[in-house]
Amino acid sequence: MSARRARQQRAAANARIQRTLDQAAAATPQFAESLGPIFEAWQVGPMLLVIPALRDDYPPEVKAAFDRRRRATLTGRCDCGGTRAARRGRVVHEHELDCPARDEAFGEICRRHAGLWKGSL
Fold it and tell me: Quick check: is 8 in a domain?
């Protein structure tokens, strides 16, 4: 396959993903079902998202970051102003550097609290 053809295929895949994300952004998230004590299924436009449930036994800092990350996943917009988009055939969510929902910050918050409460992420 030529490099030109590969670029065209990637662009087409990104366009398909972005159309789906745009449809989801216009939709209201609808709770579909609980998948045990750890996960929930939500319908957001044409997407079915399986996300971790927000649990009461999480420490406040973890719970706040977790809640922000869940809302960003369901709505496509974070409180920090970050949005999701198609990049290189994947869905990415970009957050501000000081956002607790950012992958690195969220991971650090969870590591700081690991083992301090009953339950798991």
Answer: yes
pLDDT in tens, 6-58: 889 988 988 999 999 999 989 999 999 999 888 999 999 999 999 999 988 88
Domain of 70 in residue numbering reads as 3-27+55-113
Task: Give the number of domains in the chain.
Answer: 1
Position 66: which residue type?
F
Residue 102's contacts (CB-CB under 8 Å, 6 or more residues apart) are: 82, 95, 96
Measure the CA–CA gap between 45 and 24, rounded to whole angstroms.
Answer: 4
Which phi-psi region, left, alpha or beta, contains residue 8 (left: φ > 0; alpha: ψ -120 to 50)? alpha
